[in-house]
Each structure stands twice: as structure tokens, then as C-alpha cells.
Amino acid sequence: MQPADITNTLRFGYKFQFEDGKEKEFSVLLDSRTLHALSPPYPSPPEWTKLGFQQCENCPLASTHERCPVAMNLAHLVEEFKYSTSYDKTWVVVEGPERTYAQETSVQNGLASIMGIFMVTSGCPILDHLRPMVRFHLPFATALESVYRTVSMYLVGQLFRMKHGEQPDWTLEKLNELYREIGRVNKGLWNRLSKASAFDANVNAVIVLNTFGDALRFSLKKGLDDLAPLFGADDRA
Fold first, then answer.
1. 100, 113, 168, 190: which could join 158 in a potential S-S bond, CB 3.0 to 4.6 Å?
2. Cβ neighbours of residue 54 closer than 8 Å, sequence gap 6 or more
3. Under 8 Å between Cβ of 54 and 191
4. pTM given for the model
5. How far apart, in whole angstroms, are the C-alpha atoms of residue 199 and residue 221?
6. Contacts 24+ apart (CB under 8 A), 149-158
């Protein structure tokens, strides 16, 4: 791939630093307008990237697609960490467009953070719905932060739907449905990566991401009562 035009490119740099002095560095390059991943071609993609390999049960892609776009976007990352253990300690430094983040954490949490970017910018028709969140990527987010960011993104999207003459979903009913489908994608990806990795870091990173989805659905079920006090809302039954 030709070098990306930096004026039209959004970059997130991830550096994993380990206790033995080793480092792993990754650059996530995105088209700044579409937020689509600008991934270089993978010369010899592994078998587990084929669309039919542990394909998600709700995959909307036709059999004419040879490779799963999420798997292809994750392939180089998964290969780098296929011998890593989830709870290995690492210092992760993330350089974003506006600021730098750093945290001592586990490999699975660091991987979940960068995997989240690759997954929603890959071209998967289901995960595509989360792509706007990448522009304001928040590494190492807590479950509550993820709920707030997701609901905020969704409501902004509904505002634009209304402006375009479409029916908005102010009740968040379709957001709950979307995350049900995302959970099925995560399950499929978990099955796929469990066959691609000798150790558990990659697989458990997907579980971390799915946990955030479960937290959102639980929060929606409870009427977002975990966020209500922030707005001075009366949270009495």
C-alpha cells in the first residue's frame, strides 16, 4: 500500500511494553472522513480469516466474500499475541490525534482497546454501526464510560436521522437490538480466535469487549438508572 496521506488520515499508535523489556508497536490508520481502516494487504492471510471459518451465525455477507473483514483487520494483531497470556502485565501507551494515554494493565485489556478500533472499522455490516465512536476513541474505558459514550453516539445519530426526514429511535429500542446482534458477532469472533491462538489473550480480549456490550444492555434494561444521577434525575422507584 502506498504511504497514507497524513492530512486525510487519523492515527492511533499503540505501544505494549513488557516487564522483560520487550515492546510491540502498532499503528491504526483510518480514513479521517469515513473512519474506514487503511490496512495494508496481508500477503498470506491465515486459514482462520476465511469467511466460512467459524462464520458468525448472523453474518450478512454473501458467500462471495472470501475473507471475513474483521478477521483480516485483526490478523496481524492476533498473530503477534497468539502466544500471550491474558493476565500478563504490560504498560500500554496510546497516542491519539489530540492526546496520549498510558496505563499499566493486563494484555487482555490492552488488546481489547485496540481490537475495538480494528473491529468497527473493518467493514463488517453489523459492527459498522459503532464506527462513529472511533473518532473519539477512549482507551481503557470503564463499563460506565462505555455505556455513556455508546448512548451518546446513538442519540446523536438519531438526531441526524430526524434531520434527514427519517424516523428517530429516541427510546433506544433499536440500540438494544443492535447490541444483541453485536453479541452474536462477538461469539463468532471468539470461536474463530480460539482456533487461531495457542494461549488466551486474544480470545479473552473479545470477552472483555462483549462484557461492555452486556453492561450496556443491562443498563438499558434498567432505564439507564446508573446515569440518571448525573443529570439530577429522581431515581426513586
1. 168
2. 48, 188, 191, 192, 195
3. yes
4. 0.90
5. 35
6. 150/175, 150/216, 151/175, 151/216, 151/224, 151/227, 156/132, 157/132
The residue assigned the cell 472511533 is 134
Mean predicted confidence (pLDDT) in 51-79? 92
Alpha-carbon gap, residue 217 to 211, rounded angstroms? 10
Nearest to 197 by CA among 84, 43, 114, 118: 84
Q: Sorting pLDDT into bands at 50, 70 and 90, what band is 234?
A: low
Residue with cell 440518571: 228
Burial degree of 18 (CB within 10 A; 0-12, 13-18, 19+) = middle
With contact defined as beta carbons under 8 Å apart, do 74 and 37 qualify?
A: no
Answer yes or no: are the C-beta atoms of 12 and 117 closer than 8 Å.
Answer: yes
Residue 66 reports pLDDT greater than 80: yes
What number of other Cβ atoms are within 10 A of residue 80's Cβ? 16
Q: Which amino acid is at 199?
A: F
Residues sharing a CB contact under 8 Å with residue 135, sequence separation 6 or more, in sequence order: 10, 35
Q: What is the pLDDT of residue 233?
A: 62
Sole residue written with cell 455490516: 125
Q: How far apart are CA 195 and CA 206, in angstroms?
A: 14
pLDDT over 80 (residue 3): no
Tell me the sheet residues that pair with 94.
Answer: 14, 101
Question: What is the rounded distance in angstroms from the CA atom of residue 73 to the CA atom of residue 171?
Answer: 33
CA dist 80 and 179 (Å) reads 29
Above 60 in pLDDT, residue 236? no
